[in-house]
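Quick one, T. Sequence first:
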Amino acid sequence: MDFFYYFKSRQGEMIRLLKDIVGRESPSGEKKAVDACSAYVIDELKKAGAKITRFPQKELGAFHLAEYPSSDLKEKKEQILILTHIDTVWPVGKIRKMPFYVSENKVFGPGVLDMKASLVMAIYSFKALKELNIQPKKKIAIFINSAEEIGSDTSHDTIRDLSRKSDYVLCLEPSLPGGALKIQRKGRLVIRLEVKGKAAHAGTPEKGTNAIDELMLQLDRIQKLKIRDTTINTGMIGGGEKPNIVAEKAWAILDIRFWEKIQKEKLVTYMKQLKPILKGAKIKFSIESSTPPMEKTEASTDLLSEVRKIASSLNMKLDVGKAGGGSDASIASSLGIPTLDGLGPDGEGIHAENEHLILTSLIERTALLTEILIRL
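Structure tokens:
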């Protein structure tokens, strides 16, 4: 079966499905919107023969697991886990200013690349298996995260549990521009730094301790920290009550990125050892979220070799690279599970208003994914 032509003949259907999914806006923090979009996607996966497990969440949209084939699951012990997410960074209503449309070989829209097109890939791979009556060698499970963009301890724990049951993990995040897979990703550490000072009248500041001043001194100290290839971004900051009051409280949230686990350990140790600079000030830090780096491993390199052979049989060349952003693939990779990321379509503009995918890559990557599921 030439899956490229198989999916090329269904290109119109795939675009219509993608339009419907993109039109159901699903920002991470909007539970009702995310659940509505998930319900639509899950219905499509059920039509493709998948067995669905729902993981209800109180504040977030529900997580879902779609397994194929539903009739043979108990007999199949080996598993391929596919990681996807349904949430986007775009608020409800954004589609009115950033509409879905197709222009020549590009498809535009909020979340179209990151990563609703990948959901279409997964759905149509399942549809092909069902329509052609193909029984994969391994059980296939698709995890649909509802909070990938904001991070969630609960989703991370679920991914760990599912990954430990899997022989391989494939993440359908978009490829690097040009189509390269991602075998390394930066880890992410989100830290909240809080300072408490002492309020006083602005006319007699010596009677107080300015928490904002202390915070700025600490941030300057942190920015001077030199750990190779590590970046520190002060993303949010606040404090004080009124201009004529010495600030009693101040806070900042930092986004720190790193390539290796040991770099994170150094950062956390450094933060724990921070001491106040101004007399009377108190400081504390807390970790709001943490995602491990995706480091290059022997297990993932071996998987890459197998996938490259499959791609070569389809006359596709797979380059590899690394990315500064994080993804759920890092969770699986950190457990030593053979993991590949960036198997989604090619495009540009992730988290930007020119977000788009290259249509031919959607067809090519769906064909490649289906071949991988059959042959691994």
